[in-house]
Specification:
The structure holds two protein chains of two kinds.
Chain A lengths: L4 H28 L5 H22 L11 H34 L2 E2 L3 H7 L6 E5 L6 E3 L5 E5 L7 H16 L2 H14 L5 H22 L5 H17 L9 H9 L13 H22 L9 H7 L1
Parallel strand pairs in A: 2-4
Antiparallel strand pairs in A: 1-2, 3-4
Chain B lengths: L12 H13 L4 H7 L6 H13 L3 E6 L2 E6 L3 H18 L2 H4 E3 L10 H16 L3
Helix pairs in contact in B: 2-3
The chains are: A mainly alpha, B mainly alpha.
């Protein structure tokens, strides 16, 4: 048994093409819905990534094609794609290991005020870290909110806003979504669109979490000032002060006309179900419109019998 | 922890920009670096970064009257090898962002002091308007 390299190249190439179209549709939808809440726009990107993740499975049933590439060319192209995908997956794995190490070196928060504000949110752990200068949420199955030690004594309104921001990430399973997004980017890395899409997904997820923070009642100017103060502290240490999109975020936070609804809140099950439906429909339409080659076998059969 | 000379620590984007300027000029003062940097930070920020590069062993200085004149400690060929290591480190160094949802982005374009001041002015205006 051996894999037909040429057929595999075509399969991956067509997958990349359909994936690019899905992200293009998401870009257009996001642009059309730019006056809707960040939660809605995040939902669009979440659905696009879920479809892209499920798409390879639905395309296994498509008939295999062959453009007659020479084995050397086909293997080279496969190696190129596989190298890029593998590098990105290794990068992703490294990131998760670093996050676990950071978690392992953190300690549980004992401050009563923080724990009171967290009360009623089972399954979420609050921990203190000396290795981060910004609050962050880690973990897919058991989310943990890491709080920088220096922020332990912030005023009550800021504490509640920060917690609301991170809890919004937990409620929407943003860590799981970003993990899926990074895997999708690794699979479809050849096109620039999934790279753009992942940045957009992150930005909309942060905007939606900012909206949750503002719903605690903190003044938008106070919340924005908190973010800018964090960025300034990084600059003062002569380290890079990375804050891509901070200008856009501050503009959004201060915008009195902005819609800040929390809906939609799709469960993971609903999202995956919708994605499977869309991916299957797209694949079925493609199968109906493609001319039937002679003696065509589905992709997974072609791999077994050639 | 004492810094080691010729420390193989990867350079930040700003540090790399400064090294490129010094390599191109051969020798450079702080003002020369400030003049050539794209979207430059303040004089004191550049001086701090040059000091860090000197501590890391990438730069050395000689005194010319009241001015320090900086020059690289290694040849460009060796610097190119470390530049490749920098690319690799940057690629994998940014992996932390893939695994977390952070309040402030952990990587990306740096904001200058002026840009942060602009945001501060916007926020102050919003505060006066009661937002």
């Amino acid at each position: 048994m051996h894999l037909d390299a040429s057929a595999l190249v075509i399969w991956i190439g067509s997958l990349e093409l359909v994936g690019a179209q899905i992200f293009l549709v998401a870009i257009v939808l996001d642009a059309c819905l730019r006056r809707r809440s960040a939660a809605v726009r995040r939902g669009i990107w979440a659905l696009a990534f879920a479809v892209a993740l499920v798409l390879p499975l639905t395309r296994l049933a498509l008939p295999a094609s062959d453009l007659g590439l020479s084995p050397a060319v086909a293997v080279s192209l496969l190696a190129l794609w596989a190298t890029g995908a593998l590098l990105l997956l290794v990068r992703l794995l490294r990131g998760h290991l670093l996050a676990r190490q950071r978690l392992a070196r953190s300690v549980p928060v004992a401050a009563a005020l923080w724990l009171e504000d967290l009360a009623g949110r089972p399954g979420v752990e609050l921990r203190l870290s000396d290795e981060t200068d910004t609050p962050l949420t880690v973990g897919v199955l058991r989310p943990v909110i890491l709080v920088p030690r220096r922020m332990l004594d912030v005023p009550a309104s800021e504490r509640r806003a920060l917690l609301a921001h991170e809890l919004a990430h937990v409620a929407r399973a943003d860590c799981l979504l970003l993990l899926a997004g990074a895997v999708v980017r690794a699979l479809y890395w050849i096109s620039p669109l999934p790279w753009w899409a992942l940045r957009s997904l992150r930005a909309r997820a942060e905007d939606a979490a900012d909206d949750a923070a503002l719903r605690t009642g903190i003044r938008s100017s106070s919340y924005a000032a908190q973010l800018v103060a964090l960025a300034r502290k990084r600059l003062g240490r002569a380290c890079p002060a990375p804050a891509a999109g901070l200008r856009d975020r501050v503009g959004a936070i201060l915008d009195v006309h902005r819609v800040r609804s929390r809906e939609p809140r799709w469960s993971v099950t609903v999202l995956v179900g919708a994605a499977a439906l869309i991916a299957t429909t797209v694949t079925a339409c493609e199968a109906r419109s493609a001319p039937e080659p002679a003696d065509a076998a589905p992709m997974h059969h072609a791999a077994q019998h050639r | 922890m004492a810094r080691r000379k010729h420390d193989p620590d990867p350079l930040s984007r700003r540090e790399r920009q400064i090294m490129d300027i010094v390599f191109r000029r051969g020798t450079a003062t702080i003002r020369d670096v400030l003049a050539d940097l794209p979207d430059p930070p303040s004089y004191s920020a550049v001086r701090a970064l040059v000091g860090i590069l000197e501590d890391k062993g990438h730069l050395q200085h000689r005194v010319d009257g009241p001015t320090y004149v900086y020059s690289p400690t290694q040849r460009p060929e060796r610097a190119r090898a470390s530049a490749l290591a920098h690319v690799v480190n940057t690629f994998f160094g940014g992996s932390a962002t893939d695994a977390v949802a952070a309040l402030l982005d952990l990587e990306g374009r740096e904001l200058s002091v002026d840009e942060l001041d602009e945001l501060g002015a916007l926020i102050e205006q919003a505060r006066k308007e009661g937002r």
